[in-house]
Write a structure and sequence with these properties.
This protein has three domains: 79 residues, F-actin capping protein, alpha subunit (Ribosomal protein S3 C-terminal domain); 129 residues, F-actin capping protein, beta subunit (Aspartate Aminotransferase, domain 1, Alpha-Beta Complex); 32 residues, no CATH class. 35% of the residues lie in helices and 32% in strands. The strands form three sheets. It has a five-stranded antiparallel sheet with strand order 7-8-9-10-11. It has a four-stranded antiparallel sheet with strand order 3-4-5-6, with no helix packed on it. Strands 1-2 form a two-stranded antiparallel ribbon. A hairpin with a 2-residue loop joins strand 3 and strand 4.
Length: 253
């Protein structure tokens, strides 16, 4: 909303933003998978393209309802029952098993996150979103992952953005896909347990890889970005480059 306020002040005609806002906000809300409270229930729901059944209407499978959502105000305005054809009834027992396991996993690993699990088109889709916003200390961040289970295979899509902007502008923005196999079959609870175990392993390995890259970044990435300067800290006289130690080192290299 702060961005909208600033943009509105820059535009010569307020109608320009009023016309584009519904489309822009819908794209932002679904892409970021923002969290909202489930009407009449203690859990939260993600606003995602996977759960969109109509304009401003999104599935809340755990609450067995469709929530009505105002994209501009980013708030729930009501709810209704799920209509026939809006969910895959043949996957419901498997979806419920995945949902239970996914909620336990997110509760243990994402204190500020939530999950919504869908069953559609013969597939189970697990969406996880967790965000932390601390503008007073100039940093924000969001983790998003989407897991699609079909025929014993889990396909993952991670999106992470972290933004630190005190006296500068530093961002991590990563978009990664991975695939893993699930050998378990048959009992829905057993399949769900095996899938969530695999998800935990992949996500933990991915975050460990990020930690490792941060630990080594100072000695590798940042050094590679630095512009070589002469020891004298003065501009290089290219006609006397041989006299500089840096020049000699570069020549040998």
């Amino acid at each position: 909303m702060e961005v909208v306020t600033d943009v509105r002040a820059l535009l010569p005609n307020e109608n320009m933003i009023n016309e584009s806002a519904p489309r822009t906000f819908r794209e932002y809300n679904t892409e970021q998978m923002i969290q909202v409270e489930s009407p009449g229930h203690p859990h939260k729901v993600l606003i995602t393209k996977y759960g969109e059944v109509a304009d401003g209407e999104f599935l809340d499978p755990k609450g067995n309802q469709v929530i009505l959502f105002d994209h501009i105000k980013q708030s729930v305005t009501g709810q209704r029952g799920i209509n026939s054809g809006e969910t895959d009834s043949g996957l419901e027992s498997l979806r419920v098993a995945f949902e239970k396991a996914a909620f336990n996993y997110v509760t243990d690993h994402y204190p500020h996150g939530t999950t919504t699990v869908y069953g559609k088109d013969g597939k189970i889709v697990i969406c996880i979103s967790a965000a932390r916003f601390n503008p007073n200390n100039f940093w924000n961040g969001r983790w998003r992952s989407v897991w699609t289970f079909h025929d014993g295979e889990l396909q993952a899509h991670f999106k992470i953005i972290a933004h630190y902007y005190e006296n500068g502008n530093v961002q991590l923005n990563t978009d990664t896909t991975q695939t893993t196999k699930i050998s378990e079959s048959g009992n829905p609870d057993a399949v769900a347990k095996a899938a969530i175990t695999a998800i935990a392993k992949v996500e933990q390995n991915f975050q460990s890889a990020l930690d490792t890259s941060y630990a080594t970044m100072g000695d590798t990435t940042f050094k590679a970005l630095r512009r070589p300067l002469p020891i004298t800290r003065t501009r290089i006289d290219w006609s006397k480059i041989k006299n500089y130690k840096l020049g000699n080192e570069m020549s040998r290299a």
